[in-house]
Design goal:
230 residues; Rossmann fold; alpha/beta; globular
């Protein structure tokens, strides 16, 4: 294990979208950053300086590899559970959601974050760390077709709230980033023009503000954080 005085973050699902944008901003701010993604052919070039661990967060062997990478740095100050699974596209009503697909959504969006939290709690406790779980407005609003995904994010919100109650030394956030122009959002609206949605990079300043100011744990909307910026 190599101890470092630099803050260290693990960002899952950093191959594209919000994860990649946030990882890049953390690197630019002087953080050590460990990233993962299922598709990593372009990731090392896109995030110079990041420690790239390719794989799927639902795979225990991959989580072991992430743990080895983080343990090698000797600390963890920020865990960002960003990797998500939307489910089938086009989004089906609950009556038609394949159970195998719903199980995959829950494995990715709830159980994998829980597994990573469990694995990294000792390091997070040691450094008074932050857990940032990327949620969605679908966790609290009932949108037709979003049953599997929304239910998983609602479970992630509750997991975050309970973790905050159990670990008062940590800052724990369930963050709704809002609509973004991402591959996942496009998959939710196949064939539609989503060019009016903001790019993920526009959400990053609000997340950096959250990390820097460390308000009380809870569910937060990136739009509200941006609105309170000085």
């Amino acid at each position: 294990m190599t101890s470092t005085s630099q803050p260290t973050a693990l960002v899952t699902g950093a191959g594209r979208g919000l994860g990649r944008a946030l990882a890049g901003a953390l690197l630019a701010s002087g953080w050590h950053v460990v990233v993962d993604a299922r598709r990593t052919a372009h990731l090392a070039a896109g995030l110079p300086g990041a420690l790239v661990v390719p794989g799927d967060v639902t795979d225990p062997a991959h989580r072991d590899a992430l743990a080895a990478a983080v343990d090698g740095l000797g600390r963890l100050d920020l865990l960002v559970n960003n990797a998500s699974d939307l489910g089938p596209s086009p989004l089906p009503p609950l009556a038609d959601v394949p159970l195998a697909a719903a199980r995959r959504v829950l494995e990715t969006n709830v159980l994998a974050p829980l597994a990573l939290i469990q694995r990294f709690l000792p390091l997070l406790r040691a450094h008074g760390g932050i857990v940032l779980n990327v949620s969605s407005d679908a966790a609290v609003e009932a949108y037709a077709g979003w049953g599997a995904y929304g239910s998983s994010k609602a479970a992630l919100d509750q997991l975050s709230a309970v973790l905050a109650a159990e670990e008062p030394g940590l800052a724990v956030y369930a963050v709704d980033p809002g609509d973004m122009r991402t591959e996942m959002h496009q998959a939710a609206f196949p064939g539609e023009d989503i060019s009016d949605r903001p790019e993920p990079e526009t959400v990053v300043p609000a997340l950096l503000r959250l990390i820097a100011t460390r308000p009380p744990s809870g569910r937060v909307r990136a739009a509200d954080l941006a609105g309170t910026a000085a």
